[in-house]
UniProtKB/TrEMBL annotation:
InterPro entries: Asp/Orn_carbamoyltranf_P-bd, Asp/Orn_carbamoylTrfase, Asp/Orn_carbamoylTrfase_sf, Asp_carbamoyltransf_Asp/Orn-bd, Orn/put_carbamltrans. Keywords: Transferase. This is Ornithine carbamoyltransferase. Its EC number is 2.1.3.3. The lineage of its organism: Bacteria, Pseudomonadati, Pseudomonadota, Gammaproteobacteria, Legionellales. SUPFAM superfamilies: Aspartate/ornithine carbamoyltransferase.
Length: 302
């Protein structure tokens, strides 16, 4: 990938070939727990949490430890006293890479202008690219590849949908999305999607999931957002009845945390069609591959 600094902020930083290579590496490392173990020994990775976390915190911590690097973690509102440009210039004096989970995506964009180390978006209000990598890995494990694959996203047009649209279409997946009026994806994000012909908007969830091999949803009110009238979303619950309209043996996906009985029915997450815990485990594996790829610069031999 060359010697220039590469980041993962929106999801559009990686092309199709690079995504495939990263997923292949992640799957190989999942299969062989000793593959590339301690490859980043002696390095320090910063984890900055301005939003609470379970999966991001544990998956990155486990990934970093497996690769032999050391975690330096901050759980605080650091930016109340530090500007983004000062933060990154301080942190890169100590660390080889930084993951940040925060609110405003502009913080990462400002940091990037001053960065000499890779910046990884652990989640912002606008994007969640690490989750999309885990989603793609899960789909590849389930279906063996992405050819003729259709995924439907039902619910709030949030950061998860944004990164999914960008990254899934890069590898040839058709993305159907169905959101309540005024709660769809942002126009500036739609502009980042290269293969727009693979996107299709629907007004009815049942029509959106038809012929889809995966049905995806997320919470109706994302972390840090003001409480909204969730009656707007009442017809957008993913449940057993909706799954019946999807392709036979379609899988149910959710990035978690979830609110059972709201965006998803109470029992569907535990059904045989659910791959949500496979998704959460795969966060660790794709992040191992991501860190290794970003910090070794050249393509890693599997």
């Amino acid at each position: 990938m060359g010697s220039e600094i590469k980041h993962l902020i929106k999801g559009d930083e990686f092309n199709q070939e690079e995504i495939h290579s990263l997923l292949t590496l992640a799957m190989a490392m999942k299969k062989d727990k000793n593959l590339h173990a301690k490859a980043l020994a002696g390095q320090h990775i910063a984890l900055i949490f301005e939003k609470p976390s379970l999966r991001t915190r544990f998956s990155f911590g486990a990934a970093i430890n497996h690769l032999g690097a050391h975690v330096i973690e901050s759980v605080s509102q650091t930016r109340k006293s530090e500007s983004p440009k000062d933060m990154i210039r301080v942190i890169q004096g100590y660390c080889s890479a930084m993951m940040i989970r925060t609110f405003d995506n502009c913080v990462l964009e400002e940091m990037k202008s001053y960065a000499r180390i890779p910046i990884i978006n652990g989640l912002t209000d606008l994007f969640h690219p690490c989750q999309s990598l885990a989603d793609l890995m899960t789909l590849k494990e389930v279906y063996g590849g992405f050819k003729n694959l259709n995924i439907a996203y039902i619910g709030d047009g949030n950061n998860v949908l944004h990164s999914l649209m960008i990254m899934a279409t890069k590898v040839g997946i058709n993305v159907h999305y169905c959101c309540p009026k005024s709660h769809g994806p942002k126009k500036e994000v739609l502009a980042l999607v290269e293969n727009k012909h693979l996107l299709k908007e629907f007004t009815q969830p049942a029509a959106a999931v038809k012929n889809c091999q995966a049905v995806y949803t997320d919470v109706w009110t994302s972390m840090g957002f003001a409480t909204r009238d969730e009656n707007i979303f009442k017809d957008f619950q993913v449940n057993e009845d909706l799954m019946a309209y999807a392709s036979e043996n379609a899988v149910f996906m959710h990035c978690m945390p979830m609110e059972r009985g709201k965006e998803v029915s109470v029992d569907l997450p535990d059904a045989l069609c659910s791959v949500i815990f496979q998704q959460s485990e795969n966060r660790m594996h794709v992040q191992k591959a991501l860190l290794l790829t970003l910090l070794t610069h050249d393509r890693v031999n599997i």
